[in-house]
Amino acid sequence: MKTLCVLFISTLLVVSTVTATKTAKVYLSFDHYYDGPELVSSFERLNAAYPNLTELRVIGTSEEGRDIHLFTINNKKTGKDTDKPGIYVDGTIHGNEIQAAEVCLYLAWYLLTNYDTNKSIRELVDTRAFYIIPVVNVDHRWRFFSEAGGYNIGRTAMVPYDDDRDGLADEDPPDDIDGDGEILSMRVADPFGGWKTSPDDPRVMIRVEPGEIGEWRRLGSEGIDNDGDGRLNEDGPGYLDMNRNYGFKWQPPYVQSGAGDFPMSSKPTRAIADFVVTKPNICFNFAFHNSGGMWVRGPGSKLAGFYPPADVKVYDFLGHEGEKITPGYEYIIGGQDMYTTHGDFDEWMYSNNGIYGFVGELFMSEQERYRRKEPKNKTKDEDEFAYFGGTAGEERQKFSDNLTQGEMFKPWKKFNHPQFGEVEIGGWRTFTTRMPPPFMILEMVHRNASMVIFTARHVPEVSLELIDVTDLGGGLKRVRVRASNPNAIPSLSHNAIRRNIYRKDILRIEGVEVVSGGIINDRFLNRVDAVEHRPHMIFTSIPSFGKREVQWIVKGKGKAKVTYEAVKAADRELTIDL
Ligand SMILES: [Ca+2]
Ligand SMILES: [Ca+2]
Ligand SMILES: [Ca+2]
Ligand SMILES: [Ca+2]
Ligand SMILES: [Zn+2]
What we know:
Elements: H1 2-16, H2 36-49, E1 54-61, E2 67-73, E3 86-91, H3 99-113, H4 119-127, E4 129-133, H5 138-146, E5 185-189, E6 195-197, E7 205-207, E8 216-221, H6 267-276, E9 282-290, E10 294-297, H7 309-325, E11 330-333, H8 334-338, H9 345-353, E12 356-362, H10 392-404, E13 409-417, E14 421-428, H11 441-457, E15 463-473, E16 476-485, H12 494-498, E17 505-510, E18 513-522, E19 527-530, E20 537-540, E21 546-555, E22 559-565, E23 572-577
Parallel strand pairs: 3-4, 3-9, 9-12, 10-11
Antiparallel strand pairs: 1-2, 2-4, 5-8, 5-14, 6-7, 10-12, 13-14, 15-16, 16-21, 17-20, 17-22, 18-19, 18-21, 22-23
The protein binds calcium ion (4 copies) and zinc ion (ZN).
């Protein structure tokens, strides 16, 4: 019986993990959140186990001197990283949005662990470069684990900032006044406070009806008025939001809160910008945040203008597929469907660098609901919780009780506050609300890493083929060549082309004398846009799910070489017998 039990458990272990962990050189479990040291050591272990496929290096340091790590996955045997299309992935630019780092770690681990056993992954890793920066805001993600905090605490870079303009920076942060290691919420008894205890669950407060006497006033985050100015928690650490600090149409803090004193003024922001410009092969970027369950694209503000339709098509294709890979997520336009942002990373990537990208907003609180297969009488705006009779707060308490044994919520407890007298402290705990409980981590990281992998399959992959060679008489021949791309991402974004951000791709013929050359507009009507100078070189790009056809009129015999050279796609070569 004992033997049977052991057998059963070990079978379960293999079956219950997504990949072939039996053969994994590095075993990592995705049933908890990785703190700073464990995260770094996990990447070190991956780097040590896969030295030919990976590189781990530090691209800069934070305001508090912590290292910002870059993990590159590139098979050196199949070429230099910059000769391959690149995918950039980062996480946790907002320090409290911690699970973005787990998605990055899982992506790296999954690609490497499956390299030997899965043909499709091996092909992907052999032909693409992955640049992974798991934690941008290293200071605050570190603090999230090591200091008393809350799920909304730690978004900023550690750049001192005088939020209330009293001449002092960061003098009144929230405090863990009851010393339980977390900064939760405070409430005080007040009949005019607007809230009362739910009759169905004493932990839940509900709003009073107009004219009704209440019980509670909400005081916000746990804390005291540290500087005695009559305001509570009005000047915490920072505030510089690195995702408002990038250099495309940057706006000062009186327009855009958290923008910083000037573009790229935060050390991690600058380090990442300096890194990105050294990798012109990057075709797509993912910046992972929490929460809300969204694939967000720009424009983030009206200042960015409209995106050209050719680029919108690329976003739409990938975004709609993403909605299927991560059920419940919505593909949206940041500045239109959410709120206006200036100086955010993805806008800078697209507008300054011509690189497509999504912000991935990990996790939705809807995932902490009991779900019915088919809601009864569902109307568009109806609260899904209503199907179970309770309010959102009550149903979420049941989820916490029945799926985490109450771990997610700390019940209200009396505390003698130096300024407010008797208050109560409690609420949703630090590792909740913006992130799922541990038992849900694996599905989250796997699905989101799968979206990155899906997108990585769609970087430009150009192939060259000969259409035909026609003898025109008089020693002249017409050579027609096609460069095609079966993937969604073109070899240059339309934005990169219209702003001249990169050198265009070059289709070149060598070994023969070239009389004329050009892009074929219509192969059947024989319409060609001829190149005026140096006709052996044709500057162009290869569209999404499309092709570019060119022709040359040449003199000569023997072998001619046709090459395709691109900044963001692998180069190709074709030999033609004339
Ligand atoms: Ca201040
Ligand atoms: Ca401050
Ligand atoms: Ca506390
Ligand atoms: Ca104060
Ligand atoms: Zn965020």
